[in-house]
Write a structure and sequence with these properties.
By secondary structure, this protein is of the alpha/beta class. It has a five-stranded mixed beta sheet. The chain has one domain: Alpha/Beta hydrolase fold, catalytic domain (Rossmann fold), CATH 3.40.50.1820. The model has no long low-confidence stretch (mean pLDDT 96).
Amino acid sequence: MSHFKTADDTELFYSVWGKGHPLVLIHGGNIGSDVWEFQVPYLVDHGYSCIVYDQRGFARSDCSAGGYDFDTFADDLAALINHLNLQRFSVVAFSHGGAC
């Protein structure tokens, strides 16, 4: 389990599982990245690298004083992509996570 800091010093949780083509899995609102617990093992077994993270204010990530708008959520995702130096990857998201 790892964390990284965003531009406003909010600490976000993420984890990377497996090797292969990276999939960034983004959870919906009112739930954290643990929602992917049943999909990750299957995807890893089929040759993917799964990257999950808790958006700000959810689960193991910090609750910040602000930044609960889609521009900031998108900036947080970009910061994760930069932090992991991802060049080619796919995104799987649902609900609120799909707006990022």
